[in-house]
Amino acid sequence: MNTLLHIILYAQIGLCSFCLYRIIKGPTIPDRMVGIDIFGILVVGICAILAIITGRIFIIDIGIVWIILSFIGTLTLAKYLSKKKLHE
Amino acid sequence: MSSIIGIVLLSTGFIFNLIGCIGLIRFPDVYNRLQAATKCVTLGTCSILLSLVFFFGISEIGIKAIVAISLLFLSSMVGAHALSRGAYIFGVELGEKSVIDDYKDQVEKEDTKE
């Protein structure tokens, strides 16, 4: 069972590379922001799997704080986008 | 027994995350990417967090996981809506195969009101 947990942990870390691909390549700014948003949610999943493996409580706190900070960051960037125009 | 349910929830969550990330790469357009990735990855991560409740029971860590699930459901949906509205006003075009654009009239109405 421990092996399966480690496999899922490393596969979840590998999923972050998909988001990095979208952040690097994405043709417009909103594409990159979608990548950053999804990256934050994946990191919360990594924190949860690490909490299962190590059995320590503080790791899930990191996940909760990461959710809140990612939410504030996404709202701020969306507000910034809605004030600008692409073709001007 | 509860450990088996936890493993099943964990694997289901990982499969949802995988499908969401494939959608993030393969879809042609920012709105399609946003809806595929946000829905699938949110549900998958909530499933992973729910598996913590089955591994550890209703202890300190399980209650924190439930708090994280509720926060994640609220924040990611609101964030995705704000992001798609910001992308539309920013001027990102719809994909080539998109058929209908209902939001255009609404945005023009808001512009004339201001």
In words, what does this structure look like?
The complex is a heterodimer of chains A (88) and B (114). Chain A has one domain (2-82). Chain A is flat, with a radius of gyration of 16 Å. By secondary structure, chain A is an all-alpha fold. In chain A, 38% of the residues are buried. Helices cover 85% and strands 0% of the residues of chain A. Chain A is built from three helices and no strands. By secondary structure, chain B is mainly α. Chain B has a single domain (2-113), classed as Orthogonal Bundle (Helix Hairpins). Chain B is 82% helix and 0% strand. Chain B contains four helices and no strands. Chain B has helices at residues 2-26, 30-56, 60-90, 103-113. The longest helix of chain B has 31 residues, at 60-90. The N and C termini of chain B lie far apart (60 Å). The chains are: A mainly alpha (88), B mainly alpha (114). Chains A and B meet through helix 1, helix 2 and helix 3 of A and helix 1, helix 2 and helix 3 of B.
Summarize the structure.
The complex is a heterodimer of chains A (88) and B (114). Chain A has helices at 2-25, 29-54, 58-82. With 88 residues, chain A is mainly alpha-helical.
C-alpha geometry of chain A: flat
Helical amount of chain A = over 70%
Largest protein-protein interface: A-B, 49 and 50 residues
Report the major sheet of chain A: none
Residue share in β-strands of chain A:
under 5%
Query: Per CATH, which architecture of chain B?
Result: Orthogonal Bundle
Please outline the helices and strands.
The complex is a heterodimer of chains A (88) and B (114).
Chain A: H1 2-25, H2 29-54, H3 58-82
Helix pairs in contact in A: 1-2, 2-3
Chain B: H1 2-26, H2 30-56, H3 60-90, H4 103-113
Helix pairs in contact in B: 1-2, 2-3
Essential attributes:
heterodimer, A: 88 residues, mainly alpha, B: 114 residues, Helix Hairpins, 4 helices
